[in-house]
Amino acid sequence: MIAHVEVLDLIAQMKAAERAFVLATVVRTVSVTAAKAGAKAIIAADGTIVAGWIGGGCAKGAVLKAAREALADGEPRMVSVQPENLLAELGVSAGESRDGIRFASNMCPSKGTMDIFVEPVLPHPSLVILGASPVALSLAAQARVLGYHVTLAAPATDRTAQPDADAVIDGYHLGELNDAKRFVVVSTQGKGDEAALRAAVATKADYHAFVGSRRKMASLRAKLLAEGANAAAIDDFKAPAGLDLGAITPEEIAMSILAEITRERRRGQRAANQTASRE
Fold this sequence. Notes:
This protein is α/β, with parallel strands linked by helices.
């Protein structure tokens, strides 16, 4: 078992590294249980317990299932592991939820009860901006206020001001990015359009957009297809980027893009919540 202080240290490290994980905490026990109230465990995104301890197999399966669901919808949940006779007294079955509590059966000889709070800790959503146009710079600044982890990529010679971003890349080679829900916007506006779009096409994301007209995007699409780019990946781009708010200034255009990203981001969360509620 890893010391409690080491669990807390690892939580801080994983938050700083923008890694998704679940913190499971035993909040109540009744009768004989392996873990006691206050015990904690960190569950990584792949479902492995990387630090801490919340007991053996009696609770592990139910907690790991809840952890997977919590990472999917971003919502915490309470899991109550109880012997079957106590579940029967409550009138609930294993796997059933009531009043925000998911019940699970304790099949271990100890016949104890454990309540575990399962809390997802998700990295900040990632916004990757390719380009250093006025729209790009405004988009980066506004996104930071809304809690996005912002990466801005553009040649240093194209940058007329220091971007307000968490990470600044010289050029369009993005390399390794944070493992988070990702949104990619190309806002080169005439400077390195093809190179930026090529990098964006190769970057996995929940949203791709191009700041420019449909005609400009069609021209770039033809050039990239001639190079052998994937047509479906290019057609996934929204062009022009942003909601149609009648935006004119760079700040307004940036706001319209963030509004569209917010809609896409929340739509995904609503879908996950609806799926979880049907299970």
